[in-house]
Design brief:
Layout: H1 2-18, H2 25-32, H3 34-41, H4 45-58, H5 63-75, H6 79-92, H7 97-109, H8 113-127, H9 133-144, H10 148-166, H11 182-204, H12 209-225, H13 230-248, H14 255-288
Helix pairs in contact: 1-12, 3-4, 4-5, 5-6, 6-7, 7-8, 7-9, 8-9, 9-10, 11-12, 11-13, 11-14, 12-13, 12-14, 13-14
């Protein structure tokens, strides 16, 4: 039984590490490359280039690293190397709008207008109207191709998006997600599993220590994976623990055994709330840092 408990804990940790984070691949990469991006934004081009060059050598499939090394190449005047990096980045993530945008800008500047138009169409497709830049550059491309009516439509769209940003209405400022989302539903299913494991240990353990340990581990995980909604999962786990224990197990006849199980059950419920608070606190601290 102890082996199964340890296996379940490590399985849950593996899930939290690899699947509980529902950010896109590019969002995760951007977060991991924030130091290099800051160097680029601060116009420290050579240090930024060295940073992204090293990251690509360490992780050659990072599309965001290719994007920023391409931007560094462009600042350094090596447009051929920049375009090559953009193409490489797209080979690993063809849905990253910024790669299509920068490729389109390079093609526009080199008078490859049809290629630029194709790239900018893809930039707009994957951007989801979050940025005005793809519309501006596609408008310029339409203008250079003599398609003034299409160009004016894109310039108008650029103005609309910019106006929404200035008035605080753009979805890029804050995307409001529903409270009951897919992530919360998946984690709720896992709470059922961890609650069942804790109940099994309450019924089989000779002392309160292992049930308490499992309750703390699962509760900290709850807070870590859901720093905002962890309280709801904590309530669910307490309900599952109480319902599962009283509805699906037999109450022991021995007074001593009953006291141990009661201490384990109610103590696990209390620790669930405390642990979820601690896990949420640490996750918010990590995000703030």
């Amino acid at each position: 039984m102890e082996f199964l408990v340890v296996l379940a804990i490590f399985g849950y940790i593996y899930y939290l590490r690899n699947y509980a984070d529902l950010r896109t691949k590019s969002e995760k990469e951007t977060a991991s490359l924030k130091d290099g991006i800051k160097l680029y934004n601060d116009a420290q081009i050579q240090p930024a280039f060295d940073y992204f060059d090293a990251r690509i050598k360490a992780k050659p499939k990072s599309s965001v690293a290719y994007l920023y090394r391409a931007l560094c190449y462009k600042k350094m005047g090596n447009t051929d190397a920049a375009k090559k990096d953009l193409i490489s980045g797209l080979s690993y993530d063809g849905t990253l709008s910024a790669l299509h945008l920068e490729k389109g800008k390079l093609e526009y500047e080199n008078q490859l207008l049809k290629d630029a138009l194709e790239s900018l169409n893809k930039a707009i497709l994957y951007d989801g109207e979050q940025s005005q830049a793809p519309y501006r550059w596609r408008g310029l491309t339409y203008q250079a191709l003599g398609l003034d009516a299409e160009a004016q439509k894109d310039f108008l769209k650029e103005s609309e998006i910019l106006k929404m940003k200035l008035t605080g209405e753009s979805q890029t400022v804050e995307v409001k997600t529903p409270f009951l989302d897919k992530r919360l539903a998946v984690n709720s299913i896992l709470i059922v599993v961890t609650s069942a494991i804790i109940i099994i240990e309450i019924k089989g353990a000779e002392s309160i220590h292992l049930p308490y340990f499992l309750a703390v581990v699962s509760a900290i995980s709850i807070g870590f994976v859901e720093p905002v909604k962890g309280w709801l999962l904590a309530i669910c786990q307490c309900i599952f623990l109480l319902a599962g224990y009283f509805l699906f197990t037999n109450i022991p006849e021995s007074t001593g055994r009953q006291e141990i199980e009661n201490f384990s059950l109610y103590g696990s419920c209390i620790l669930t709330f405390a642990g979820s608070f601690i896990g949420g606190f640490f996750k918010r601290a990590i995000n703030a840092g």
